[in-house]
């Protein structure tokens, strides 16, 4: 048995920043310290938006839908349909970046004054909704929230019934990255960018309300805003009911009519 006196300390790991890696950015945002990560900064960035991840974010057994499974077989390199092929990833990345550019051009075409009026009217119509200055005050408070991204003339309406409350839910949006194979939700010319692809500093205003039944109000607030200003990809409300409606053939996917040279 080796004595403590003979113990040799392992080499100390270097904490120097690797060349080429940008230093982390930090900011105090809505009362919370936010920090850029190893992959993403504090604002949405095209250069890191569609980094390839070959692993599929969804999986279902062949027995569930043999026809669909067989139709998708060429896009996977393994028998279990868990790893996408290099060709599929490259093509999907190209489509996602084209959609990103179309969305950014679309956002730039929208009038900020009209957007401001729409937000003000939607907030005023919802009883108890107030502007959030410090998210710490919404720790553990459940309810309805609206994230406003003024630089892109977009808003996202969400609800939370979790113990962490609105503070935790908003922070989750800021720190989550949309899965590579889910960047597109529909066609290239209509898919809405996911709110989870934006970063903390893209959110410039937040409104929130403590309500007893947020599920019944979420879609009401979404529908009160012109669709061109909304980042929600599907209708709001009870997920089970939405899934049931989709199974019956209802079109629950929201779209933006994107084009290469959009006009307001």
Would you write up a description of this structure?
The strands form 2 sheets. Strands 3-6-4-5 form a 4-stranded antiparallel sheet. A two-stranded antiparallel sheet has the order 1-2. It is globular and about 50 Å long. The N and C termini lie far apart (about 80 Å). The protein has one domain (about 60-245). The longest helix is centred in the middle third of the chain and has 24 residues, at about 85-110. It contains 7 helices and 6 strands. The protein has helices at about 45-50, 65-70, 85-110, 110-125, 165-175, 215-225, 240-245, and strands at about 25-30, 30-35, 130, 145-150, 155-160, 205-210. By secondary structure, the protein is an alpha+beta fold. About 30% of the residues lie in helices and about 10% in strands.
């Amino acid at each position: 048995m080796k004595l403590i006196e003979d113990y040799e300390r392992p080499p100390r790991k270097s904490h120097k920043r690797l060349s080429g890696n940008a230093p982390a950015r930090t900011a105090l945002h809505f009362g919370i310290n936010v920090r850029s990560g190893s992959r993403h900064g504090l604002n949405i960035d095209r250069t890191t938006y569609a980094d390839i991840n070959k692993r599929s974010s969804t999986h279902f057994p062949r027995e569930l839908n043999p026809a669909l499974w067989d139709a998708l077989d060429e896009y996977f390199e393994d028998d279990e349909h868990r790893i996408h092929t290099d060709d599929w990833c490259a093509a999907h990345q190209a489509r996602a970046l084209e959609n990103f550019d179309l969305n950014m051009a679309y956002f730039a075409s929208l009038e900020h004054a009209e957007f401001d009026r729409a937000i003000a009217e939607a907030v005023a119509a919802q009883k108890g909704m107030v502007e959030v200055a410090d998210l710490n005050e919404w720790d553990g408070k459940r309810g309805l929230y609206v994230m406003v991204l003024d630089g892109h003339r977009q808003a996202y309406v969400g609800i939370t019934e979790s113990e962490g409350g609105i503070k935790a839910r908003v922070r989750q949006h800021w720190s989550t990255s949309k899965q590579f194979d889910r960047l597109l939700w529909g066609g290239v010319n209509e898919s809405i960018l996911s709110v989870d692809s934006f970063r903390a500093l893209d959110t410039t205003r937040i409104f929130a309300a403590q309500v007893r039944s947020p599920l019944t109000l979420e879609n009401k607030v979404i529908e009160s805003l012109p669709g061109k200003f909304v980042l929600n990809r599907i209708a709001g409300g009870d997920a089970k009911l939405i899934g049931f409606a989709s199974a019956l053939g209802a079109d629950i996917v929201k779209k933006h009519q994107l084009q290469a040279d959009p006009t307001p």
